[in-house]
Amino acid sequence: MIVSDREAEFREFVAAQMDSLRGLAYLTCGNWQSAEDAVLTVLARLYVKWSRIDNVAGYARAAVVRAAIDETRRPWWRRERSGAHDVPEPVVPDLTGVVHDRLELRAALLKVPPRYRAVLVLRFLEGLSVQQTAAALQCPEGTVKVYTARGLETLRRVLGVELEARHAAV
Amino acid sequence: MQLSDLLEAARADAPPARYDVDHVVRAGRRLRRRRRTAWVAGVALAVAAVIGVPQWLHGPDRRSAPVVQPGPVVPSLVPFDYTFTGYRAGRFTVTDPLSLSLGWMFAKITDDGSKKPGCAVMCHLSIGLPGAPLPAGITGERITAEPINGRPAYFLADKGGIRYLIWDYADGAYAHVQAPVPLAMTKAEMRQIAEGFRPGAARAAHLGFRMTYVPADYRLTNVTTPAGSPSARFEVAEVAEARMTAPTRVPPESLRTSHATLLISVIPFHKTDGSGPTTPECTTPKIDGPSCRMFVGDGRTMVNVMTTDATTLPVAELRRTLEGITVLDQDQPGTWPRVNDAIPAAAQLTVNR
Which domain of life is it from (chain B) (predicted)? Predict the structure, then answer.
């Protein structure tokens, strides 16, 4: 029964967090299929060590970002393309130009190096502090600050707009 | 503009997930089972070593047992051959194939720069080897197209626009042009590129480095062959073998959590001062996986060996792999060996013939 309870807890966690983790991985690696693979890999590992981790949400976030960064380190021609093509987005009519804007936005994000992007995502989307981000990515706090500044600068340059980094610098 | 809003917008409209909670739980159970099996096997091996080695050293003449030789089996290495060459199609150029996996060949499509962003975005020609079905990941709304060279063809569209023109260029062999339409090209131009494709005779792919050592249980699954930046990718044997037998040449889900890979890359550096390490230097970065690197030649070419999973492949193995690599003259591709000759045979998949 103890195992069942653990599994029930795990299922509840996955059901609640999977979409968020998928989005997090996507923003880091820029590819929905790779993002899903990264999330599946991390969650399978989390299943194995479920009872040994205190902050499972934090662990999952950090592990997913790191796994997604791994995905970005392989250029397209170094991947098994037959298994790694983009997952197409749903086909729905679109007459507003919103999709085009979003594509541009995604293209801009992809111009930010993956590790900078991971820092921006963790800090400004997930709301982590410098200290928490450093812990999540297992790097010094100074590195997080440098990556934040450089990532923001790259985004500003690519998008040609000023960005408000609402999260308080720590 | 708030950065958080921007990030939220960028991840909006996610496609339907391929995995659900049940998938995750099943993958977790499989991983746990494999780890337990590996642990038990390790213990069994250790016990066997403790009990068996003394017996082996002091036991009866072990040569006395007759050995039955198996019948002759003639395995052949899975060939790494290209079956087409680059060509021009209007304002586009399809490069010679650059990369080859167990199921597909890939070439880049470049344009004349007359349209922005054009093919700077992402334009590829992918040619499936006979028997390799269209990857399951390519889905969307099908729009029937006029046949390509008399064979069935269709466009595949998602809400971002046309992404693929797919046709079967031979029985059981698919090909596709991938490009964002209309950002990079028109549908008519996609057709022009597809119609220009002609399969040719198989010619061996050649690799710009040689290897003398590959960790046990790793098999070659992918090479890239451009001069200056060749690379090779190895995967654990069970995954590599699954790629050969699974209908889509994609490892079945049961293996998806053990996809540690070993990547060998030759990377040219044009701005370095040539003072990089000339003997293997290994690191285990906090963010990235472990890797070993070494500069060769004039100190402007780096050889990098990395793995995606430190738990299955220790740094010592990466170092040994790197020490066994010889980078060949990147300006003399005519002198490079065939892929099958450049990689130890034990690290290649075979087929019985």
Answer: Bacteria
B181 and B126 inside one domain: yes
Q: What is the pLDDT of residues B157-189, one digit of tens each?
A: 865 566 789 999 988 888 999 887 777 888 999
Residues B47, A103: Cα–Cα separation, whole Å: 58
Which CATH code fits A1-87?
1.10.1740
By the 8 A CB rule, do B247 and B133 touch? yes
Tell me whether residues B10 and A105 touch, CB distance under 8 A: yes
The partner residues of B264 in beta bridges, in order of sequence, read: B232, B305
> Architecture of domain A96-170 in CATH?
Orthogonal Bundle (1.10)
- Coil, strand or helix at B348: coil
Would you list the domain boundaries of chain A? 1-87, 96-170
The β-bridge partners of B344 are none
Q: Give the type of residue at A23.
A: G
Interchain contact B3–A (C-beta under 8 A):
yes
- The residue whose two tokens read 């028997």 is B131
* Residue A4 burial (C-beta neighbours within 10 Å; 0-12, 13-18, 19+): exposed
Rounded to whole angstroms, what are the CA distances from A50 to A9, A59, A60, B3, B236?
Answer: 9, 10, 11, 33, 26
Distance CA A121, CA A136 (A): 12
Task: Mark whether B290 and B346 lie in a shared domain.
Answer: yes
Strand-pair partners of A144: none
Judge if B315 and B256 occupy the same domain. Answer: yes
For chain B, how many structural domains are there in total?
2
Q: Between chains, do A162 and B7 touch, taking CB under 8 Å as contact? A: no
Q: How many CB pairs (< 8 A) connect A and B?
A: 204
- Token look-up 């049940």 returns B22
Q: Which residues in A lie closer than 8 A to residue B31 (C-beta atoms)?
A: 44-45, 47-48
The residue type at B188: A
Within a domain: B50: no
pLDDT digits (tens, 9 = 90+) for B110-165: 998 887 667 765 788 999 888 777 765 677 788 899 999 999 999 988 655 667 89
Q: In terms of residue numbers, what domain contains B303?
A: 209-352
A72, A82, A98, A101, best to mutate vs chain B, most B CBs in 10 Å: A82
